[in-house]
Design brief:
By secondary structure, the protein is α+β, with helices and mostly antiparallel strands. The chain contains three helices and eleven strands. The strands form four sheets. Strands 4-5-6-7 form a four-stranded antiparallel β-sheet, with helices on one face. The radius of gyration is 23 Å and the shape is flat.
């Protein structure tokens, strides 16, 4: 799931003032400023405000935050697990299919979201599914390294093994 206008979902706890945007000046009030109520993308507090909001919401939904990774949440409903990984404005959800659809509906009621389907690429890892198995690879990373060292057109060569 991709959260639209992510940082606009964060509520700022500090007082933050900005100059009026061009076109919003009022004659006689040129020195006035605007107080922000919500985070903006360029604002330093924006990521923290967003994380605080989504963290609170997920825990209200019943998710438990992992001790190992603060961006990993999990919940067990009946005998079905549901795992959610938060990465900036993307939410990766896995678990029992019935739980996934319910979770997506709940999240979409609170935040404007787009379902981007199955994960294909995450943090440099390629992800694909075949015949009930999930595979991870780093082929694009490998190709990138070969390009950096000008070795993209080299061919593999077997070397003799020396044994004693």
């Amino acid at each position: 799931m991709d959260v639209k206008t992510t940082f606009l979902n964060g509520v700022i706890e500090e007082e933050v003032y900005v100059e009026k945007p061009q076109g919003f000046e009022v004659l006689g009030r040129e020195t006035h400023v605007c107080e922000l109520k919500r985070a903006l993308y360029e604002l330093e507090q924006a990521p923290r405000a967003w994380y605080s909001r989504i963290d609170t919401y997920l825990q209200q939904m019943g998710f438990t935050k992992s001790d190992a990774d603060p961006n990993l949440y999990y919940i067990v409903v009946g005998d079905g697990p549901l795992i959610l990984v938060l990465y900036v404005d993307d939410l990766f959800i896995t678990g029992a299919e019935r739980l996934i659809s319910g979770c997506k509906e709940d999240l979409a009621m609170e935040f404007k979201m787009k379902d981007i389907g199955l994960m294909h690429y995450f943090l440099g890892l390629e992800v694909w599914k075949e015949e009930g198995h999930i595979f991870l690879g780093q082929g694009q990373y490998d190709v990138g390294v070969l390009r950096i060292f000008h070795m993209a057109n080299y061919r593999p060569l077997s070397t003799p093994m020396i044994t004693n």
